[in-house]
Amino acid sequence: MKKLVLLSLAFTCAALLSASAADAKANYEKSCAKCHGKEGKGDTKMGQKLGCKDYTDAKVQAELKDDAAAKAIKEGLKDKEGKVLMKPVEDLSADDIKALVTYMRAFKK
Fold first, then answer.
1. Can you give the residue ranges of every domain in the chain?
2. DSSP run (H or E) holding 97
3. What pTM was computed for the model?
4. Which of 24, 48, 55, 77 could bond to 85 as cystine, CB 3.0-4.6 Å?
């Protein structure tokens, strides 16, 4: 009986993690891919115009801290002159933002 309960819990946790990853992918495609590109390379027309970084680059990933990425998603980014480079992503919970950062980390090669 204990094994059955543990197995059930394991499947439930796996399903929740899978749903979270699917939600992060959907959020990325909806809110980020236009500039950052579907694969995170920043190679879209808008991404090149704004100077988006290539998140497949291990060096870029190493330089970016999770808290800074989460802050950028939540608050947006401006250049030195105050021009908006990235609008804040709205309607995301703290868990959604954390999942989005985790999803972005998976672009590293």
1. 2-105
2. helix 94-105
3. 0.76
4. 77
